[in-house]
Write a structure and sequence with these properties.
The complex is a heterodimer of chains A (242) and B (148).
Chain A: H1 3-18, H2 20-40, H3 49-64, H4 68-80, H5 82-88, H6 90-95, H7 97-102, H8 104-128, H9 133-139, H10 146-155, H11 160-184, H12 190-212, H13 214-239
Helix pairs in contact in A: 2-3, 2-4, 8-9, 8-12, 8-13, 10-11, 10-13, 11-12, 12-13
Chain B: H1 2-8, H2 13-16, H3 21-41, H4 48-66, H5 77-87, H6 89-92, H7 94-109, H8 112-139
Helix pairs in contact in B: 3-4, 3-5
Classes of the chains: A mainly alpha (242), B mainly alpha (148).
Chain lengths: 242, 148
């Protein structure tokens, strides 16, 4: 290559790196690849599409020395769709409403038991292992959707950006663990499996549930919404004990 | 909400659905917008999209109540658009997921305590939630949905 060609490529890269188009395309391609791989693995829980796509993108960002802010310039268009997708959960909820009504008591009981377990177990384990209070405060709302969790963490003196990280990590962990754990416990009720996935690991768990079964998806969506409300009320009360 | 009823009278919803994607998307965004406005006006601690979910759900319930013979939502463009969004919900978490790489250092700096807390707590939460659901369902006679 002549120096002129190199200069051209450099100019091209300067343009691409600054334009949202590149990273938006990369996000879609990485997900497309991850989703195909996940489908080829028969939706094996370890072949989680979020996990694979994130790993691909993280590797690419590191290799090209691209900062997250530059990446997000493009990826924000995908991120934005989380809002309308949350609203869209009303459709499966409406469709399965007769089923949901009949399960009102199990839903209420599992919601309270699950919400308390999520907060108390996380905070207790981390406290026993010597984590300081600000970390406990950031960890406590880890099972609920990022928007609610960050608000709760800020309120009780946790670092919201650490909370966002822990929320995403919890989501991926839950989505990967839910199927093997439910098999291990011999729980085959799709309502219970979906509800657990949505409660423990919010939208990423809900995405996994929709991947597996529509009833599980509907119940995951309900669990995600309800646990957001319960956890917001519960965390300040529980953290007062630590 | 008028156009939801309007679409129900179209004889072949599958054929017309492409031209009707825009109203369906507008409805989703409109509910989100209404949710954001409500959350701010009433200073509610609930995110706008969650309120939007509640609004759309109430509208859909009302529609079924008022017109029990109306076409099922799944056959309408709103059903199609929602289906696409929810089938690829995983994609929508990828940008935020890539963001955690920035803070991976913070998590690792706290050593294995945070990682252990995340792993054990998430597993415990999954098991307790599903277990309580199944036990209470058996207690009150709410049988599991048969596999389909």
């Amino acid at each position: 290559m002549t120096p002129l060609d190199l200069a051209r490529i450099e100019t091209l890269w300067v343009y691409l790196a600054a334009d949202p188009l590149l990273w938006l395309t990369v996000t879609l391609l990485a997900y497309g690849l991850a989703d195909r791989f996940s489908a080829a693995c028969g939706r094996h829980p370890l072949a989680n599409p979020v996990l694979i796509a994130v790993a691909l993108i993280a590797a690419l960002l590191t290799a090209t020395g691209t900062g997250f802010d530059a990446y997000f310039q493009g990826a924000q268009f995908v991120h934005f769709l989380l809002g309308p997708a949350t609203v869209a959960l009303a459709v499966p909820l409406h469709r399965h409403w007769p089923l949901v009504r009949k399960a009102a008591l199990p839903i209420l009981a599992a919601l309270l038991a699950g919400a308390v377990t999520a907060v108390v177990s996380a905070v207790a384990i981390a406290a026993l292992l010597g984590a300081p209070y600000p970390v406990l405060a950031a960890l406590a709302p880890k099972s609920v959707t990022a928007a609610i969790a960050m608000g709760v963490a800020r309120e009780i003196g946790g670092e919201p950006s650490l909370t966002a990280t822990l929320v995403i990590a919890t989501g991926i962990l839950g989505a990967v663990m839910v199927t093997p754990l439910m098999r291990l416990c011999r729980i085959s009720d799709w309502r219970a499996r979906g509800f657990a996935a949505g409660l423990a690991s919010h939208g990423i768990g809900t995405a996994r549930a929709f991947q597996v079964n529509p009833v599980a998806g509907a119940f995951a969506g309900i669990a995600m919404g309800l646990n957001g409300l319960v956890t917001a009320a519960l965390v300040p009360l529980i953290l007062a004990l630590f | 909400m008028g156009f939801v009823g309007g679409i129900a009278t179209v004889p072949h919803p599958a054929r017309s659905s492409e031209s009707e994607m825009i109203p369906a998307l507008s409805l989703l965004l409109g509910c989100q917008l209404a949710g954001e406005i409500l959350a701010r006006l009433l200073a509610l601690p609930v995110p706008g999209p969650v309120l939007g979910l509640a609004l759309l759900f109430l509208a859909l319930q009302l529609r079924t109540r008022l017109r029990p013979d109306a076409a099922a939502i799944e056959t309408l463009p709103l059903g199609a658009v929602s289906g696409v969004l929810l089938a690829h919900l995983s994609l929508l978490f990828v940008p935020a997921g890539a963001g955690i790489v920035r803070h991976a250092g913070t998590v690792l700096a706290h050593g294995p305590s945070l990682l252990a807390a995340l792993l054990l707590s998430t597993a415990l939460t999954l098991i307790v939630t599903a277990f309580v659901f199944v036990k209470v369902a058996a207690l009150v006679g709410s049988p599991a949905e048969p596999d389909r």
